[in-house]
Write a structure and sequence with these properties.
Layout: E1 5-8, E2 19-25, E3 28-32, H1 40-49, E4 57-61, H2 67-70, H3 73-80, E5 84-87, H4 88-95, H5 98-108, H6 112-116, E6 127-130, E7 135-138, E8 141-147, E9 156-160, E10 165-169, H7 196-205, E11 210-213, E12 217-219, H8 222-244, H9 251-270, H10 272-281, H11 284-295
Parallel strand pairs: 3-4, 4-5, 5-6, 10-11
Antiparallel strand pairs: 1-2, 2-3, 7-8, 8-9, 9-10, 11-12
Helix pairs in contact: 8-11, 9-10, 9-11
């Protein structure tokens, strides 16, 4: 029986954008990617609807430290005193977040507070650094860990043996049910197109029965999703590679054109309502720049 729950955390008024993974453990629950501080009220309300309170949270497991996934971590730890499992590179930035905040500010500018809210440092004593290849136990629940760079150098995935669920963060892109469209998320600064295929292979080697993405929720078609993601990532990379071949082009204009094509295509194919969750988080212009940086 699959007892993992996807807790919807409405973001900028849109549903099916952020999904926190709620995993029952002895004495409470573990949360996979609790989201940014701006959705903490929704997190607390959602746990209440499942019969839990924030006081029942026993651990946080982060796939990576981007603010949409991990922004509320420090706030929760300071309130609850729970351990945080995270890749060792990400752990350093959670303890001393100045560089992380500066990098995000370059990307999101004056929208930082609106999007993500407060980001508090995590006390080092609460951090449980990972390298990949470990098996961790949280409240009697065993999860395997794989190092899965591609989207970020500090990315890991978790495999819950009890339910054959792989928590893959952004390694397999995003979707927005009921749409089955799988799209990459490739913002700067550390997209790695050479490492990404091996990360997908590590996830596939678990033979998961479902994939859990923060964007959005659990999919029961892991093999199809992995294949669709590979195709989409290759297509985006080929497009950006072709743009870069024009040495005289304005890169800002190229990124804007790419973004316009992706978003207008989603509106045309899915309709404005179904495309709204993609629009809330996708930022294709940032993905263009992330891919361009990787290809250079």
């Amino acid at each position: 029986m699959n007892d993992v729950r996807a807790l919807d955390l409405p973001f900028l008024g849109a549903e099916r954008v952020l999904a926190c993974g709620v995993v029952p453990v002895e004495g409470g629950v573990a949360l996979v990617d609790p989201g940014p501080s701006t959705v903490l009220p929704a997190l607390e309300d959602g746990l209440g609807a499942l019969g839990h309170g924030l006081g029942d949270v026993r651990a946080l497991l982060l796939t990576h430290i981007h603010l949409d996934h991990a922004g509320a971590t420090g706030t929760l730890v300071r309130r609850l005193g729970v351990p945080v499992w995270v890749h060792e590179v990400g752990a350093r930035h959670l303890a001393r977040p100045e560089k992380l905040i500066a990098s995000a500010t370059r990307l999101y500018g004056d929208r930082m507070d609106e999007l993500w809210g407060a980001f508090e440092a995590v006390p080092e004593a609460s951090l449980r650094p990972l390298a990949g290849g470990e098996a961790v136990e949280v409240g009697g629940r065993a999860l395997d860990v794989a190092y899965t760079p591609g989207h970020a150098v500090h990315h890991v995935a978790y495999f819950d043996r009890a339910t054959a669920t792989a928590f893959v963060g952004d390694t397999v892109g995003m979707t927005a049910p009921p749409s089955e469209r799988v799209l990459p998320v490739t913002p700067p600064p550390d997209v790695d197109l050479e490492a990404w295929p091996a990360s997908l292979d590590r996830i596939a080697a678990w033979e998961p029965e479902r994939l859990f993405r923060m964007h959005w929720g659990a999919s029961e078609t892991p093999a199809a999703d992995l294949a669709a993601f590979r195709t989409a990532l290759d297509a985006w990379a080929a497009r950006v590679r072709a743009d870069l071949a024009d040495a005289d082009a304005d890169r800002g204009h190229q990124a804007a054109a790419f973004s316009s094509e992706i978003l207008s295509g989603l509106d045309a194919d899915l309709g404005a309502e179904a495309a709204a969750p993609y629009r809330a988080l996708l930022y294709p212009d940032a993905s263009w720049h992330g891919l361009a940086r990787a290809l250079r």
